[in-house]
Protein: Phosphopantetheine adenylyltransferase
Organism: Kaistella yananensis
Amino acid sequence: MKVAVFPGSFDPITLGHYDIVERAAPLFDKIIIAIGQNSQKKYMFSLEQRVEFIKKTFEKFQNVEVDHFEGLTIDYCHSKNVNFILRGLRNPADFEFEKAIAQTNRELTKENQIETIFLLTSAGKSFISSSIVREIITFGGDYELLVPDTVRVPIKK
């Protein structure tokens, strides 16, 4: 069975994330969208909100599930017996950053290797990032064009 973990903070999930999962869904038997928790990081949305956003977004996808974890992504993958990590690339800077992580993961998992699969975000979505969405939300802008319909928050104007 081909299972991939799509890790991230998803604070919040964006149409860029959706694009990657929608296009990867036919390639894998199962995709686990794994929300990484970092105790040092301050999130705009609670873990519960992010889980709910993602579950609602992908409720029609039979092979997509949502989970969360703390620690290293490769440790989470080993705990789930997963051999693929799914990552989206928006631009060359993403590639360089993700390449370094993928190479490190390969070095750390020589005996039980985990392959990273990269998908390029569709051109019309490549400018979207969660940090941009958070900034727009913070200042009361129209963020709804950048996220799935399931992500709705009250805006302070």
About this structure: Helices lie at 15-24, 47-57, 73-79, 92-108, 130-138. The first strand starts at residue 3 and ends at 8. DSSP finds five helices and five strands in the chain.
